[in-house]
Every structure is written in C-alpha cells, then in structure tokens.
Protein: MGMT family protein
Organism: Neptunicella marina
Amino acid sequence: MNQALQKIWKTVAMVPKGKVASYGQIADLAGLPGRARMVGKSLGQVPDGQTLPWYRILRSNGQIAFPAGSESAERQKGLLQEEGVVVLNNRVRLKDFQWQPSLDEILFKLEY
DNA sequence: GGTGTGACAACAA
DNA sequence: TTTGTTGCCACAC
C-alpha cells in the first residue's frame, strides 16, 4: 500500500498544536523532498474518521492553500485560531508560528 | 509514451 | 506585496 501516504500522515500528525508547517516542510521531513504537491493531494485523501491536523499545513509563504473566503479556508482558519494561531487575510505569520522540529523529534521519527 | 493536473515552491518584476 | 513563470513529481487518462 501507499508508503508515501503513511509517511506523510505520520509526519503531519507530529506537528504540535498551536504551530504550523508548510507542504514542502512536511515532504522533506517525510523523506520525500520535492514532493510538496503530493502532500497536498494526500491531505485531501484523509478519511474523515482519522484525526489528522491537516489544517496546520500551509503554503511556504504562510498562506492558506484554499481560495480566501471559501468554506474550506474559513474552516481551516477557525481551527487554527482555536489553537491560538493568528490568521490575517488568509495567511499566518510563519515567523511566529512555524514549527521548528528539534533534532530529537526528527531522530524519533526516524526510529520508525 | 504524451499530456494535463494539482491543498506546492522559488524567483523575477 | 502581488502576480506570473518555471520547475517539480506522482498520477490519471
């Protein structure tokens, strides 16, 4: 089955609450450099049952990937703000909220 | 194989 | 800052 998909989901799952990450960042951490677009596609395939923080994933510039004002964008914005992440004009200040995995977090991930 | 697509990214203006 | 262009890579036709 889809290994890449699993890796991506596991990686997304370790983004801490109140922090965000970019598609490319997730791809890199998942060991799939250059596959940012695949991360996006994968998040769209997440079964509803799964509790995955898909909403903590943004574009490299901090923008929400959905068109501003769309239902999805609003939902994502809401979920983020509930965690304390400030969203303005459909974007987040990465300087303040981007997740910076510590070395041990990365190593822990490699154990798998 | 060729071609188009996509919850992307880097860079130029 | 915002908008275009290009480069990417896995996939579905």
In short: The first strand of chain A starts at residue 21 and ends at 22. The radius of gyration of chain A is 13 Å.
